[in-house]
Each structure stands twice: as structure tokens, then as C-alpha cells.
Amino acid sequence: MMILASSFTLYMLISLFYLFTALSEWPLILRQLLSQRVILALWVSIVSSTIVAFIGVILGVPTSWMLAYKDFKGKSILETLIVTIPHAYPPGVVGTAYLLMFTTSNPIGNLFDRTGISIVNTFWAIVMVKVFISTPFLVSLLSEKFRSIRETNLEVIARSLGASDFQTFLTVTLPLSYKAIVAGTGRCWARAMGEIAGTIVFSGAVIPGVTQTMPAIIVFEAQYNLPIALALALILSTFSIVILVSFRVLME
């Protein structure tokens, strides 16, 4: 068992850190880091992912609570559809679905067109795709945490002492689950930072400062200029590792 576990661990660590063997590229990395194109792409990636994480908390916490505490017919099917399947759903398919949804020949797209609101090839197209792909990571983690809290019956005791559902959530559920909320938010944010296929399809990912993200530049440059793609990949991976490790340290 330990041999298999060690083999998998070694495989994951090599895959994660192999980019850093290209340390001789640091002069190129620094030049790219200071370029306006990269700064704008990093800004779009960070801002869109942060908005997605915020939306994830606002929508994901109530959804997780519902899945953990409310018993109704078809709940397992619903959870599979909105949590489990999005984990494995091809992001490119998500982008294509939204692209179809917002064409003017579609009722939804026609409604937005009549109101003068454009979604396709905009910053908010990035956000929409990332919310679908990233928020289920938060909901999955948090719903399991809520279920474990429910099994302790501490909330039942709080209600028996006269606390309302909202008071019980604030005084019992939230203090016991805040670490899971923070961890889930970190996962949501990190997944949003790395999203590429769906955003390329729905937002185009070519307008600097608006729809062009770091992963998009890496994909495009890898086809024509591998050294620059490598430099950008090192920047993004370093940034992501530092942020996620920081999240983990804060949760200890």
C-alpha cells in the first residue's frame, strides 16, 4: 500500500513542481511579469475569480445548508445535477451552452438584447462560466460539513432552548463551519483562476483588460512561443501555490 501511495505522491509532486526546473528562464519571466499584457490578464483573472468566490459564498452557503438540512424527494438527484456533475462537466460545453443561450434567436438572448445588455464576449461572460464550474467545489465541501454538524444534534439542543433557525445558524452552525467555508471559498477561487476552455468559447478571451485571462494567454502563446508560455505558466502556478498554501496555513 505504501509503495502505491508513494508512487502517486511522487507523480503528483513532480507534475506540480516540474515547471520550476526552468529557473534559467527567470529573466524572461520578469520581463513578462512587467509587461502590460500580463498585468492586465492577471488583473482580469484575479478580479473575476474574486467575484466568483464572493458569489460562491452568497449562493453556495444557502445551497449547501439546503442539501444538508432539508429532506425532500429527489434531493440526491438534484445534488448530483448541481454539484457532482459540474465537477466533471467539460468547461467547453458550458461555454457553448451559454453561447447558445445568449444568441438573439434564443428567448433569453433576445430578452437581453432588447434591454441592451450584452453578455457574449464580455467580462461577465467569464464570471458566468466560472460560477458554474467553480461554485460546486465550495458546495460539495460545505454540504458535507453541514451534514456532520447536523449529526451532532447541537442545533436541536439550541432550538430546544428557544433559539430560532437563524439564531441557531449564527451561534452554532456558523462557528463550527467557518473553516470549511474559508477552505471552500479558496477552492472555488483557485478553480476559477485556472478556468480556460469555457471562457474562451463564451467570452472570446482576446480583449486585453476585459476578457483576456492568464490561462488564455498561456494557451494561445503555447502554440507559437513556448518560452513565453512557460514564463506565464510559472507566474500563474507560483501565484496559485502561494495563495492556496497561505489559505491552508491560515486554516491550521
Can you walk me through this structure?
With 252 residues, this protein is mainly alpha-helical. It has one domain: MetI-like fold. It has helices spanning 2-17, 26-33, 36-69, 75-88, 91-101, 107-114, 123-150, 154-160, 165-194, 197-203, 214-222, 226-251. Helix 5 (91-101) packs across helix 7 (123-150), helix 7 crosses helix 10 and helix 11 runs antiparallel to helix 12 (226-251). The longest helix has 34 residues, at 36-69. The mean pLDDT is 84.
What's this, in brief?
This protein is mainly α and 252 residues long. Helix content is 79%, strand content 0%.
Keyword list:
MetI-like fold, mainly alpha, 252 residues
Helices and strands, with pairings:
Blueprint: H1 2-17, H2 26-33, H3 36-69, H4 75-88, H5 91-101, H6 107-114, H7 123-150, H8 154-160, H9 165-194, H10 197-203, H11 214-222, H12 226-251
